């Protein structure tokens, strides 16, 4: 299958999962994860009509996205990988959404940069639902307090929560936990589900799925 066919297949599987869940049409956004792929490959997805993309590295993104964004108005770029505070300026300049706010230091750095650049990004908090030591994200028990801190102390409008469940576990309980935390925090966006489990995530209420290899192929 060609890239554009795989993309259309993902679109239609998302639509079917949304229907099966009894949820409103178009209530799930597809973030096409284009990390490691070159601009020419990404252009095929843009030509097919995809506008929302995810990348996990700031530096790699700087090498391809300024040009791709200049070519096509309406691109929405999400940072879905861990962010260091020394890259905050570059991240704020290039991205539209940062999904990986997970500690005070990075929240402060992003708040300062947004003020300095006069640019308001949309922000999600990453939650380490499996409490995996090697994985980024705030602990589930600390999430509500952290979201309140971002709002009240830093004036950041946190819109969503994001998680990456442990690779070797049934993702359902992790998706359910994220949905529960989002309700507790009063946020509407749930970024969860990847190539292997995005339909499951939609059944658990995902409003945004991050799909890479099912569209672009293996990395
Ligand atoms: C790479 C990546 C994805 C996409 O993973 P696939 O299995 O290729 O769909 C989703 N989310 C994050 C945070 C990623 O780093």
Structural class: alpha/beta
What ions, cofactors and ligands are bound?
pyridoxal-5'-phosphate
Share of helical residues? 40-55%
- Describe the largest sheet: 8 strands, parallel
Q: In angstroms, what separates the terminal alpha carbons?
A: 16 Å
Order of helices and strands: HEHEHHEHEHEHEHEHEH
Mean pLDDT: 97
The side-by-side strand order for the widest beta sheet comes to 7-6-5-4-3-2-1-8
Unreliable sequence segments: none
How big is the Rg? 17 Å
The count of DSSP E runs of length 2 or more, i.e. the number of strands, is 8
Envelope shape: globular
Outline the structure in words:
- This protein has 219 residues and is an alpha/beta fold.
- It is 43% helix and 17% strand.
- It has 10 helices and 8 strands.
- It has helices at 3-20, 39-47, 58-62, 65-71, 88-94, 104-117, 143-152, 172-185, 198-203, 213-216; strands spanning 29-33, 52-55, 76-79, 97-101, 122-127, 158-163, 189-191, 208-211.
- The chain has an 8-stranded parallel sheet with strand order 7-6-5-4-3-2-1-8.
- The model has no long low-confidence stretch (mean pLDDT 97).
- The structure holds pyridoxal-5'-phosphate.
- Residues 33, 35, 56, 80-81, 164, 194-196, 210-214 line the site of pyridoxal-5'-phosphate.
What's the helix and strand layout?
Blueprint: H1 3-20, E1 29-33, H2 39-47, E2 52-55, H3 58-62, H4 65-71, E3 76-79, H5 88-94, E4 97-101, H6 104-117, E5 122-127, H7 143-152, E6 158-163, H8 172-185, E7 189-191, H9 198-203, E8 208-211, H10 213-216
Parallel strand pairs: 1-2, 1-8, 2-3, 3-4, 4-5, 5-6, 6-7
Helix pairs in contact: 5-6
Bound molecules: pyridoxal-5'-phosphate.
The site of pyridoxal-5'-phosphate (PLP) has 14 residues, from strand 8 and helix 10.
